[in-house]
Backbone:
């Protein structure tokens, strides 16, 4: 139930985020609203105001509908696999549905712009800020990423000392992500100045605040990964505390990152409130639906989003199309993960005794226990105390993979937890297996093994 | 200073960069000794190839508008009152005068226009 609640909370957060972001797009920042650049006079035009208000209303209704549907999803008595599948389909719909009115009203606003002739005097030119380019900006010191990297190393060292290679691999994700964040911070940082109009000091301020937000986001991300690594380590010994710390860290990072984005947007809105009265930069031609960048003349693959601190890819480049296409396919295929969970959930655990081995099977996973190496067999009427998953599957119908328990420490499990008894098999080398298929003749199998 | 690059123009991008920097110097937007961006920084800002910017800078250096040294990078050259007029400038001026002559302009009209434009640019 807790896992289901966490998944539900992770999914449902998309709607307020989408609502805040898209609703925020109706506020003029850098002379842009709904992805359309307008001069100062166009902002207060009655038709513009009306279009933006209508978009906000439609968006509000869609988001409300999505929230109600997800509450219903949580209340329905569904199996975990079915819940996960529907939840992931819901996530896909939640990401796409609010974008439909966005595109619709973007087009309407663009048509109004054309109708009113709201174009700068020198259209279709690429603006280059020579002054801003001359100001050197050094990237932040790698030390800012090395500190969280150092903080995430103790679990990794522990895993290596314990010669637990699975845990070592798991704890390696933190340091690898931190290094990756440093590389991505450098690679995806676009130096282009945030030029809105001829006001040089405004350009400098907008560029500075955006770069500062960009830096902070990646450094915070590195510290977050260090925290996740440490909380995973904690979860091995105190599962509840480990989970609590991980949830708190995730919420904290989300709040900080989203807060940073909205703070930046608010600053962009405030600083450019009076812009667009004379000369202003209009690059709408390069943005499809106001959100996809397409400029064959730009040599860059990664470019800054016009609003906020994010980046996007240039779809005029083949690699840009590949990245965008792969991301879209991955997001759309997410529900397949739910289908996989559904299959796992419904597959039975089977135990087969051959002349040489006891074979426990579930889905694609097979655990072969050679009879010659068995040291001891016990028939357990109850699950071992403090049984917790380290790596593997934990569902109502099946537990399999690497587990730990207070009584037996490391256990390899493949069992149906709904009905005992289960067989606890200790091997000559100290490896412990816990298997059971929920069948009635488990006692008979125990006798045969003995 | 803002440069406006027109990718649809027949005039090459390096020429557009060169021309607008010259206009900037003439108008006083770029003053002597003022530091210009590095080739890499300007290429990054403009989203063009580094070779394009490098070519524009080479041209400006040849014509004496900018100088480059290891310490201070690329800077606008000090104004020289009697510097040699580049051949290319004379060529362009000749072409413009011919066009005006064909259009039936008198010497006085041409001089008046020149004076007006020169004052505007200054």
Residues:
């Amino acid at each position: 139930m807790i896992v289901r609640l966490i998944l539900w909370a992770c999914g449902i957060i998309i709607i307020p985020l989408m609502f805040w972001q898209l609703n925020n797009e109706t506020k003029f920042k850098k002379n842009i609203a709904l992805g359309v650049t307008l001069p100062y006079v166009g902002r207060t035009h009655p038709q513009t105001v009306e279009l933006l208000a209508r978009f906000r209303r439609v968006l509000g209704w869609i988001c409300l509908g999505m929230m109600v549907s997800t509450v219903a999803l949580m209340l329905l008595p569904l199996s975990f696999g079915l819940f996960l599948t529907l939840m992931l389909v819901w996530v896909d719909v939640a990401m796409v549905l609010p974008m439909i009115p966005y595109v619709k009203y973007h087009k309407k606003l663009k048509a109004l712009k054309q109708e009113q002739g709201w174009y700068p005097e020198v259209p279709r030119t690429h603006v280059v800020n020579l002054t801003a380019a001359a100001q050197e900006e050094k990237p932040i010191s790698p030390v800012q990423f090395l500190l969280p990297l150092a903080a995430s190393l103790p679990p990794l060292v522990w895993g290596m000392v314990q010669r637990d290679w699975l845990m070592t691999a798991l704890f390696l994700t933190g340091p690898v992500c931190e290094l990756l964040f440093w590389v991505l911070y450098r690679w995806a940082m676009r130096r282009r100045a945030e030029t809105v109009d001829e006001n040089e000091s405004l350009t400098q301020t907008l560029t500075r605040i955006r770069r500062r937000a960009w830096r902070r986001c990646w450094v915070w991300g590195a510290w977050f990964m260090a925290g996740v690594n440490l909380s995973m380590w904690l979860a091995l010994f105190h599962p509840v505390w480990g989970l609590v710390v991980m949830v708190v860290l995730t919420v904290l990072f989300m709040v900080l990152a989203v807060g940073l984005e909205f703070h930046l947007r608010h600053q962009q809105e405030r600083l450019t409130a009076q812009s667009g009265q004379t000369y202003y930069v209009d690059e709408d031609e390069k943005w499809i639906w106001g959100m996809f960048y397409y400029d064959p003349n730009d040599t860059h693959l990664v470019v800054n989003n016009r609003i906020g601190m994010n980046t996007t890819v240039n779809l005029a480049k083949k690699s840009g199309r590949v990245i965008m296409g792969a991301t879209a396919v991955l997001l759309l295929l997410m529900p397949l993960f739910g289908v996989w969970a559904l299959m796992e959930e419904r597959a039975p655990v089977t135990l087969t005794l051959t002349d040489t081995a006891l074979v426990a099977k579930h889905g694609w996973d097979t655990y072969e226990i050679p009879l010659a190496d068995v040291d001891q067999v016990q028939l357990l009427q109850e699950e071992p105390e403090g049984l917790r998953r380290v790596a593997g599957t934990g569902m109502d119908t099946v537990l399999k993979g690497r587990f730990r328990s207070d009584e037996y420490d490391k256990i390899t499990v493949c069992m149906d937890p709904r009905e005992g008894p289960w067989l606890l098999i200790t091997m000559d080398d100290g490896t412990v297996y816990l298997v059971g298929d929920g069948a009635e003749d488990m006692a008979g199998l125990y006798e045969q093994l003995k | 200073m803002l440069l406006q690059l027109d990718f649809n123009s027949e005039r090459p991008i390096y020429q557009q960069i060169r021309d607008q920097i010259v206009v900037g110097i003439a108008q006083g937007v770029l003053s002597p000794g003022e530091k210009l961006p590095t080739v890499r920084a300007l290429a990054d800002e403009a989203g063009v190839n580094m070779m394009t910017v490098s070519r524009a800078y080479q041209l400006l250096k040849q014509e004496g508008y900018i100088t480059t040294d290891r310490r201070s990078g690329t800077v606008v050259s000090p104004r020289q009152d009697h510097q040699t007029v580049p051949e290319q400038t004379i060529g362009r001026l000749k072409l413009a005068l011919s066009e005006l002559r064909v259009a039936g302009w008198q010497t006085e009209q041409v001089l008046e226009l020149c004076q007006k434009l020169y004052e505007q640019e200054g």
User: Anything to note?
Assistant: Residues 152 and 230 of chain A are 6 Å apart (CA to CA). Chain A touches chain B at residues 122, 124-134, 136, 190-193, 195, 198, 295, 297-300, 303 (CB under 8 Å).
